[in-house]
Amino acid sequence: MTGLRYVYAICRPFPAALSAELTGVAGAPARQVLHEDLVAVVGTVPEEDFAVEPLRGRLRDPEWVGETALAHECVVDALTTVTSPLPLRLATVLRDDAAVRLMMQEGHDRFVRALDRIDGRVEWRVRIYTETGRPAALDGAGPDRAGISGAAAEGRVPENAEEYARHLHDDLSRRAEGACLHPPRNVALPEKSGTNVLDAAYLVPRMKSEEFVERVRRAQHEEGGVRVEFTGPWAAYAFTGESAFAGELAWPACDTTVHHA
Prior knowledge:
By secondary structure, this protein is of the alpha+beta class. Helices cover 30% and strands 24% of the residues. The protein starts with a strand and ends with a strand.
């Protein structure tokens, strides 16, 4: 099969067949490459676009990156309905199926440890915004308190918002098997308002997701002046590294055919 291999995720073998209509990056159908007790989900992409040099150029195009990321996530999301995939970094490209198998062989122990961590679990993302005050990013303030905004100390958001964010994060962390705080995101969007005071991901067993979501839904009505948003279930993007706080996998190249441009 000609072309390079774009690798989406590593999984354990799963019985469900991938839909023939499931297409990903470059419109290529997703398929499985098996090696011992691991499966890589890949697509075949054209070398003229995904070899090292042309790919570096394309990654400087925000529109192309956005479309590629969406296609990448589409495949990973489909996998999440049938297994617990270990997502790889955007633009993980290898020469051929043999190189994919070599990657699984050389990274086997780390892949297995990560899969053990996320097996039967999904990620839920929770963000809290205050509905008063100016977005911190607009006046140069940076994140503080390991992912909970320090904007209240400067008078831009009510103290109760950050206090509530810490309280809810502690509560949700007790209901999850892992929690990961991200720096608060304050992006000026027409449909959004307020300052982001919490941006967190939680690793939750599938069997307990309904209970977890119900707790977040209650939180949406508990505190005046704040807005609680959540998304999921996702593949466990925030929990796939050697520690619970690694944001993405960045496996070393097995040989010169592997590149993350």
